[in-house]
Design brief:
7% strand; alpha+beta; 35 helices; three-stranded antiparallel beta sheet; 11 strands
Length: 817
Amino acid sequence: MDTTRPREATGEPDRVGPYRILSQLGRGGMGAVYLAEREGADFTQRVALKLLTSDAGAGVGDPLLAGQLRSERRILARLEHPGIARFIDGGTTREGRSYIAMEYIEGTTLLEYCERGQLGVEARLHLFLDVCDAVQYAHQQLVVHRDLKPRNIMVTSEGRAKLLDFGIAKLTGGGAGSSTGTDHSQTGMWLTPAYASPEQVRGDPVTTATDVYACGVLLYEALTGMPPYEVDGLPAADVERIVCQYTPERPSARVRDARLRRELAGDLDSIVLKALAKEPDRRYASMRDLGEDMQRYLDRRPILARPDSAAYRASRFLRRHRMPVASAALVLVLLIAGVVTASLLAAKASRERDRAEVSRRQSEDATAFLIGLFQANDATEGLMDSVTAGDLFARGIERAEALEDQPLVQAQMYDAMGQVAINLSRYDMARDLFTRALTLRRAADPDGSPELAASLRHLAGAEARLGDHETNVALVRESLAMDQRVLGSDHPVTLNTLELMARVAMARGWYREGEALQREALARRTEVQGKDHPDTIHSLRALAVWRLRSGHLQEAEILYRSVLEQQTEILGLEHDDVLETKLRLGDMLYTQTGDFEEAERLFRDVLGVQRARFGDQDRRLRWAKHSLGVLLDTLGRFQEADALFADILTLSTRVMGPEHMSTIAAMEIMGSHLRRAGRYQESLAAIQEALDLKRALVGERNLGVVGTMYSEAWTYMRMGEYALADSIFRVGNAIVEDEWSSFTSRRSDGYRALAMNAVYWGRYEYAQANIDRARDIIAPLLERGEVTTDYEPLVRLDRTAAMLDAAWADPDRVERQ
């Protein structure tokens, strides 16, 4: 008995117009696509035939679908390009169902073709050049495709890409033809969210930039094997938040293969992320431009895409919205509150881990936007003056305090405003805001959560800046234990917290515990992420810092050079991590090994790259300028150094304001330079101004304040005011003994400073007593093997002891180092 259902029983047609249906190729929201053929007297022609659906609620007589298909027919009829499936025929069946016949492309979809053929990066880019050419041609004919996705791009057996399905395409240009495309309200139901641009999911007008964005998504997926966003199955509100607000990771950060990561890092990262820019005017101006940049990459020429600066989004916002400050503050805070609220509701609506993670990331992105408003790198464009910043800050707190009926949203806002307070150097206020956020989160999540752990870290940072290091340690330890329990020991966030705990231990002088934590983090990253992952290499560099601090100079240098080689190979010569490693290596070479020549070369290399990327007036050059300036001071090249330190201070004052902690630090740096140059009165004036400002911000007994006091005392010592210098050193040492007795290096350096001043003063027995006291502080570390005889505070102490010995032998020949 034949059980095959007749075609009529399945609802599938046997014929459509002159075409005989052979099989179904696919089905979508508008209808089905069939493989069909038409037989003539002396030919047989195969086509891909799209037939409107006859489902209930749509089907025969649906004016929307019929109108859209007529639009597609008109669009295809005007497109003649080897990279676009050709229009052949169109009409209406006897039942009133519209159809369209197109060139039938035998092949596989673009992404499937790449994976099946295991194509390399360059081969994939060549395919995308075909796509860019076809889409650019359509744009020149005033056609926007609006639905670029994998199944709409086929690759023939000859390896040529062909563009299909202009079902929701739109004619642009404002002429009569522009009405043939439907607007978003009509076509939104047919969008593919994973490939839709921000303006599409918002329902805003689309332009050719919409296709540039979709091509960026496809390129991201072709290069990494995964989409930039995971939105399948999510509600429309979640999709809109992700697509419109979440910045995807760099493609190179998504792949595990070290060779592929190196190939994607740099230029290809920049090309893809430029195509994926949220704002249409920040994407490539055309598909031709996108294709040309890919060709530039293939030709090994400099690309046109450049990564955004850290302050870009905030500066763009302020340029677009020049409104009264109070209104701006209210709008921004309401915006963030709305996003955070929606994120929390989405997380509550689903307990699935991936959904909760998406929600959390969106609220963090919203918070980051507000925080970014108070940061700037460009000296020519401070984002806001102190009045504006203060007003916005006050309005933010006011808005947060009004959210008592939404404790988790209120906690998020307090966290955001706390981070703003940190950026404004308002540490007392930051501590208060972080404490409020922590209290709310403890009540809501008594068993712990990633957000609660983050609040613990935020408060820990504020406590450290204010000098409460005991509380800082306790909070970081609690955060680490919570991350390990909630996220697992191998989660990237947990490993970051583990390394934070290592840094806290280093600051306290707990070398054994800190190095053990750092080595654990490195081992876990190596196992989970692989030895060539940038995060793993970053952890290896952190270990180099540890070995340097504990006196293992040779091992530290080997590690730094190994890290530099790996980072350069994987990330390229201009990556920020590569530049930082060069600076760290250079700092070690001139301070520890006396290799001034290589250190200067490294510093100038970094400055050259940074100046080319950011210009000379950018805060990101600060470290390189400072290191080079100190080296030049050491070599007696004070005039060259003077320009570098003046740049640092002028830039920070202009961008961050005269009372910001960054500016205060720059003022102190200038004071130290002036002392080395022998300009003692100028040095004293700069350092004392910095000291007064710092005391006003963080109080008298802060560790940073003590450091500035020591700098003041060093200047008095150089001026011959030994009694005054001795008094300041002793006050500072007393504060350290009372507040931070576990800070080994700071304690020993304080007594060494007293000893050196005493040598110049001619009080040799007093100097010896202080040297002995400093040695007693370091001795337990040496006995336990936590440091070596190359431990930097011990090396400095040995130099002072040698100077004392020389003074005993010949008091008239004391060399003032």
